[in-house]
């Protein structure tokens, strides 16, 4: 629904960031930012006009002329300062995130912290953006490479990690010498904007970082703009596929991290208590709204008898507002998300899965209007059921039973997605077999959410990813730079060629 914020003077409006200034949009199209635990309208976010998006890109293009020549040391010191400012404002950032997205405060701090790790990595750009040199590849000839920035880059980020994922993108892009236009999720842009304020305070020059808001029209404008050289995306498979196809057709680099259906195998020899705790945390943390959540557990052999204990672990989790102490599972981000998850639970029942724990309509005193679904567990889940085929993005766990580890690996490999997977076992042989035979990009061994630290890259695979290079780590430095190879020869009087050489070789 379009609302003019002037009609509600008490409600703050989210600003655009263009050319180093936080500016009020001239748009007539706005969206409410709603607290998912209370339905309170926190702010209103503008859908930027075409002219505002073009101005943000032009601002980034102009800033690139000088930023690309800024020394590596200067860039690194900005991100060292930025790291300090994020640490100093951690509690404020977490509070904003919880209010607009719904996560528990500890989980919100974790969201910010995982992004902070990438900022710290960006401060190491002097070691990351090194070229190569070969001396005397032919007589008097040297060859070396330069890793040069591309120009204006763009990022499109999802609602579920409004701190971490923007911090996956713009710090590394900017540290590599590019300028950036960010489009955060319109559902929860406030913590992203606070992070951008801190980036400006840390010394990011005017025009190097710009922010526009909007929906499909803004996404298409970024994909189509001739001055944008690369786009990074995290979100749904439907939108990610659209972004990748449209951006690459326009000649851009693109990396799109998309949907998932992560599985874990549990062998009977696994440490039972540790495994149960890990499963419950990974399946129901953040109300299941993670692309690296654990929505499917494959119980092998005698581990199939663990179902009652899994249910009890889930039943003990507390559902409530993310601001309340002791809460484990906060609300879903929106009414639409609540309706979708509830509908999929109903479909699971109708399609023959056994509902072991029903989390619908939990009682949350004081937050009766919140978008809450409690931990929900199905057993007897099979391929073809909607709760298995779709990414639910809610606190719903599907349990599958098989007899052997080979069946479990084959079952997982048949699923088209490849974001993450895990095995719980005390057998080194089983773990080695799993990591070798599983066709998934990120593997955990007794680790339920195997997202690597930033010195490595996020390596989701298959239908979960489009593009060859992943976010952060070494791969993203390659994504945000162009390798230029220089071959040079210098002559003195004794080495000057005395005749014309018409061959392709260097002599």
TrEMBL record:
Group of enzyme by EC: oxidoreductase
Coiled-coil regions listed: none
Residue ranges occupied by any Aldehyde dehydrogenase domain in the UniProt entry: 22-486
Species annotation: Advenella kashmirensis W13003
Similarity remark: Belongs to the aldehyde dehydrogenase family.
SUPFAM superfamilies in the cross-refs: ALDH-like
Keywords for the protein's UniProt record, in alphabetical order: NAD, Oxidoreductase
NCBIfam families, per the entry: MMSDH
Biological process, per Gene Ontology: L-valine catabolic process; thymine catabolic process
Molecular function GO labels: methylmalonate-semialdehyde dehydrogenase (acylating, NAD) activity
Protein's name in the database: methylmalonate-semialdehyde dehydrogenase (CoA acylating)
Keyword Oxidoreductase (UniProt): yes
Pfam families, per database record: Aldedh
Gene3D superfamilies for this protein: Aldehyde Dehydrogenase, Chain A, domain 1 (3.40.605.10), Aldehyde Dehydrogenase, Chain A, domain 2 (3.40.309.10)
EC number(s) on file: 1.2.1.27
């Amino acid at each position: 629904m379009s609302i003019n914020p002037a009609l509600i003077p008490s409600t703050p409006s989210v600003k655009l960031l263009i050319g180093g200034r936080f500016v009020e949009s001239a748009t007539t199209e706005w969206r409410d930012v709603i607290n998912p635990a209370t339905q309170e309208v926190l702010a209103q976010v503008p859908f930027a006009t075409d002219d505002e998006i073009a101005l943000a890109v032009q601002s980034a293009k102009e800033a690139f002329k000088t930023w690309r020549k800024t020394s590596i040391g200067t860039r690194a010191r900005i991100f060292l300062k930025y790291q300090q400012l994020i640490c100093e404002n951690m509690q404020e950032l977490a509070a904003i995130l919880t209010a607009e997205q719904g996560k528990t405060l500890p989980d919100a701090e974790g969201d910010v912290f995982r992004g902070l790790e990438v900022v710290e990595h960006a401060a190491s750009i002097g070691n990351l953006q090194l070229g190569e040199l070969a001396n005397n590849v032919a007589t008097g000839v040297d060859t070396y490479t330069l890793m040069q920035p591309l120009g204006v880059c763009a990022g499109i980020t999802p609602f579920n990690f409004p701190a971490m994922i923007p911090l996956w993108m713009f710090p590394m892009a900017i540290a590599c010498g590019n300028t950036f236009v960010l489009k955060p999720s319109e559902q929860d842009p406030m913590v992203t904007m606070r992070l951008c304020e801190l980036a400006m305070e840390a010394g990011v020059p005017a025009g190097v970082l710009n922010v526009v808001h909007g929906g499909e029209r803004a996404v298409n404008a970024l994909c189509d703009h001739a001055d944008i050289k690369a786009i990074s995306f995290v979100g749904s498979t439907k939108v990610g596929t659209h972004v990748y196809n449209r951006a690459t057709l326009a000649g851009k680099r693109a990396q799109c991290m998309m949907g998932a259906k992560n599985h874990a195998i549990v062998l009977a020899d696994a440490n039972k208590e540790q495994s149960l705790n890990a499963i419950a945390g990974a399946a129901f943390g953040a109300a299941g709204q993670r692309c690296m959540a654990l929505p499917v557990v494959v119980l092998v052999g005698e581990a199939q008898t663990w179902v009652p204990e899994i249910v009890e672990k889930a039943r003990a989790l507390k559902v409530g507002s993310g601001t309340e102490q002791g809460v484990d599972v906060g609300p879903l981000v929106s009414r639409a998300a609540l309706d979708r998850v509830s509908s999929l639970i109903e479909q699971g029942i109708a399609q023959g899965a056994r509902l072991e724990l029903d989390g619908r309509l939990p009682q949350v005193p004081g937050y009766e209007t919140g978008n809450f679904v409690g931990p929900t567990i199905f057993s007897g889940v099979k391929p073809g059921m909607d709760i298995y085929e779709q990414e639910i993005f809610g606190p719903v766990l599907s349990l599958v039973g098989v007899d052997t580890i080979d069946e479990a690996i084959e079952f997982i490999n048949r699923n088209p997605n490849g974001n993450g997977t895990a095995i719980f076992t005390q057998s080194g042989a089983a773990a080695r077999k799993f990591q070798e035979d599983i066709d998934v990009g990120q593997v955990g061994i007794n680790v339920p959410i195997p997202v690597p630290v930033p010195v490595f890259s996020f390596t989701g695979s298959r239908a979960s990813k489009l593009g060859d290079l992943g976010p952060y780590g070494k791969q993203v430095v390659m994504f945000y730079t162009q390798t230029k190879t220089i071959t040079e020869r210098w002559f003195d009087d004794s080495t000057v060629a005395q005749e014309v050489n018409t061959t392709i070789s260097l002599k």
